[in-house]
Design brief:
A hairpin with a 2-residue loop joins strand 6 (167-170) and strand 7 (173-180). The chain is elongated. The two termini are 44 Å apart. It has 800 residues and is α+β, with helices and mostly antiparallel strands. The strands form three sheets. It has a six-stranded mixed barrel with strand order 2-3-8-5-7-6. Strands 13-14-19-16-18-17 form a six-stranded mixed beta barrel.
Length: 800
Amino acid sequence: MQGLLRDLRFGARLLRKNPAFSLAAILTLAVGIGANTACFTVANALLLRPFPYPDPQQLVSIASKDKAKDFGITLLRYELVRDDSRTLQALAVWTNDNANLTGNGEPLQAQLLRVSPNLLSVLGVQVQLGRTFTDDEGTPQGWHVAILSDAIWRSRFGGDRNVIGRTIALDATPHTIIGVLPGGVAFPFAGPADVWTPRFFEYSLMTPQRLRMGVGYLSGLARLKHGITPASVDAELAVLGERYRKQNPAAPDADPGVTMTAEPLRDTVVADVRGKVLMLSGSVALVLLIACANVANLLLSRALARQREISIRTALGASRKAIMRQLLAESMFLALIAGTLGAGLGWAGTRALVVWGAGQLPQGLPITLDKRVLLFTLLSSMAAGVLFGMFPALQVSKGGEGRGHSAGPAHMKMKSLLVIGQVALSLVLLIGAGLLLRSFAQMLRIDPGFDPRNVLTMNISLPTVKYASPAQQTAFFDDVLRRVAVLPGVRDAAISAALPLSWKRITPVLPEGQPNVPLAQRPFVDIEAVSPQWFRTMRVPLRAGRDFSVADNAQGHKVVVVNEAFARRFWPNQSPLRRHVLVGRQTEESEVIGLAADVKNKGLAQATQAQLYFPFAQSPWADMNLLVRTRVPPLSLISAVRAEIASVDSDQPVAAIETVEDLMDGSLAQPRFTMLLLGIFSVTALALSVIGIYGVLTYWVAQRRYELSIRVAIGAQRRDILRIVVGEGLMLAVAGILAGLAAALVLSRLMSGMLYKVGALDAATFAVAPVVFLGIALLASYVPARRAARADPVPALRGN
C-alpha cells in the first residue's frame, strides 16, 4: 500500500510538471466519461432502476391485440379476467379521459384518469392526504368522488390540507375530493392526469351501453401471485380468451387472431425508446474507447520521452513489475481526476438530455444521478485508466533501449494501431449519424397530404352531462363555426375528431362486394368525423365526387368519403363512388359520395391507412378539434377565437392550442433528437481521431527527423517531404477506414428499425462518409507535413 501511495504521489508531481499534457489528457477523458455518465443515467432510469412500487417485478401489463394493432381491453374482458384468473393477485384497469373542471377558479379542461378502485392498492401506493377509493365507489351506484394529483392540488388549491371533503364539478357533475396523490410517485404507464376517479365504466364520449358492446377503451395492469411467471399468465389468458369468444361471439374483438398477453410493466413503458437508448449508450462507449486510445498515445509519447529515466531505474534494480505499477498508478490518478470532472459533465449532460428530450422520453420517471450511476462513473474511470495505461506501460517497461530513435519502430507500430482503431470506431459513428441524417432528410420531404401553413388548432371537449344529445353537440359546434368563420383574418374553419397526422377511432366495416362475415372478422379501418369545409380548410384534394354539405345531416341519407388507401384496398382499379359501406353495428349502409387524397393518419413515417370520413352531423362526437386557416399569423387569433367559444358557452374551456406546423414539427422531434445526439457523438469522435492522426504524425516526424534531414541534404524537395508525411497519415486513415467499413456493415443493420426509406447499407452514406473522413485526415496530415518540409536540416544533422 505504501508503494502504491508513493507511486501516486510521484504521478501527481509529474502531472503538475506537465500542465499542458495533463489538461489535454484530463479533458479528453472527461468528455468521454461525461457522455457515458449522461447516457447511463438515462438508461439506468428507464431500463434498470426499479419502479417506485413494492415488488415491482410482480407487476405486468395486460393487453389484447393481434399482429397489427392493440384492441384495448373491453369491460367484458376485464370482468372475465378479474373474476376467473387464478394466477393474478389482482387486476386493475384505467383509461385516460378529460373533463371540464369547474369550482375554485377558472374553468379548466382537466386530464382525467378513470381507474378501477383497486389500482393504487395493486401498485402499493398510498395517498398523502385523505384515503383511496372503496369498491362501492367503483360501481354505477357509488358516490362521485375524486383524488387530486399533487400538481393540481398545489396549483389550483394552493396546497390546502383542508381540501378533503370539498366539492369540484367534473363535466357539471359534483365530485367530493377524498384524497391527494403523493408528489414523488410516478405513474408513467398512464401518462399525466390532474384528477383520478373510480368511474372506469364511464367514458365521456360514449354511453355506458355502448361501452358494454365491445369497445376496447381500457388498459390493464396486474400483480402476479408469488411464484407465477408472465408465461404462466399468458397460458391462462389464452384459455380465458377462448372463453370470452364463446360468450361474446358478436364482439368486435372476438376474432381468434386477437389474444391477451402479459408482459413486464417496464417493457410496456419503455418499448418505444429501449432500442434508441441502447444504441446511444453503445455510441458513447465508442467515444470513450476513442478517448482512451487518444490518451494512450499521449502517455506513450510522454513515456518514451522518459526512456532514459526508466533505463536508469532499471539499471539500479527496478523490476519491470515496479515500472509498470508506477506507470499504471499515474494512469489511474489521471483517470480518477478525469472521472471527477466527467461526473460533473455527466450531470450537466443529463439535465440537457432531460430538457431536449422532454417529449421523447417516457414521462414520470425521474432521470437523476444515483449511487448506481456514480458507481458506474467510478468503474468507467478505473477501466479507462487501465485501458489507456496498459499499452504504454507494457511497451515502455520492456526496457533495453536507451535512445528514443532506436526504440521507434515498435512504439510507432503501437501508436499507429491505436490511431487506426480510433479512425475505425469514428467512422462507424459517422456512418450511423449519416444514415439518420439521410432518413431525417427523407422525412422532411414527405407530403402529409394537406397544407399545414397558417392553421390554428385547439381542442374542445363538451361535457356529455350538459350536451347529452347529438343534436346539442351539433348545435354547439355549428354555432362556433359560424362565429369563427366570419372573424377578421380567418379564411376557413372546420372541426375534426382527430388532429392531422393522427387517428382517434377504428371500427369494423363491410364494404360492398366483400364477403359478409361476422362483425369480429370484418376489417378495421380508421373513421373520422369532420364538418363541411374540412377538406377545403386543410387543402385536402378531392379526387372524385363531392364534399359534405349542410344537407348531410342527421335526417339525411348516410354518406361517407373514402380515402385513396381505402379504395385501393377494397375496390382496386374501380371507382368507389355510389358504392356502399356498412359501418360497425349500423344497420343502414352509407353511400360513398367522394374520394379524398391520402392524408398521413398514423404519423409522418407510417403508410396511410384506409380511412372513412363521416359528416359530423351524422356521427356527432363531443371531443372535437377546431381548425382555423388564417390570413394572419395563427397565434394572433387565439384570443378572438376563444372569445367566440365563450360567447356560445362561457363555462367551456379549450385546450391543446397550437398550430398545425407545430404538430408537424413535433412529429419529427424524436428522429431529430436521436440524429442530433448521434451527430454530436460522431463529431466528437471525429475530432478525437483527427487529433490522434495529427499527434502520431508529429511523433513520426520527430522520430524520423534525421532521415528526413538527410533526404533534404541530398536534394529532396519540399513536395517530396510533404508527400512522404501526408502519405503516412493517409495510410493510417485508409487502414482505419477499411476496418471501420467492415464494422459498419455489421453494426448498421441494428439501426434498420430507426430509418425511413433509407437502407441500413445505404450506398450513398457508405460512400460519402469515408471520403469526408479521408479529406479531414488529409488536412490533419498536412500540418505536421508542412512543418517537416520547412524544417532546417542542419540542427538535426549536427545533433547526430
